[in-house]
Amino acid sequence: MSEQKAAEVNQLIEDISQKLNMLNIGVIKAEDFSPDKYEDIEFLHQMVMKKSSFSPSEMQAIASELKNLRK
User: Sorted alphabetically, which Pfam families does this protein's record hold?
Assistant: First the structure.
């Protein structure tokens, strides 16, 4: 993964983490994601940033999706 892509993925993951107040998201690092998953991560990021609040089940689904997007 290029350094720029890695930085972008890292920022997207960090933004999602902060928006959801996920404390354990630190175990997910940019290098855990393949460059071909960037668009999926970006889509998830856009969805998360648009919403003002999340139900516990939505938060679980987002965490699960992040897990699925890992290499």
Answer: DUF1128 (PF06569)
pTM over 0.90: no
Tokens matching residue 63: 């965490």
User: Domain map of the chain by residue range?
Assistant: 3-69
List of residues 6+ apart from 65 with CB closer than 8 A = 44
The whole-angstrom separation of Cα 19 and Cα 45 is 10
- Contact partners, residue 31, CB within 8 Å, separation at least 6: 1, 6
**Phi and psi dihedrals of 4, rounded to 5?**
-65, -45
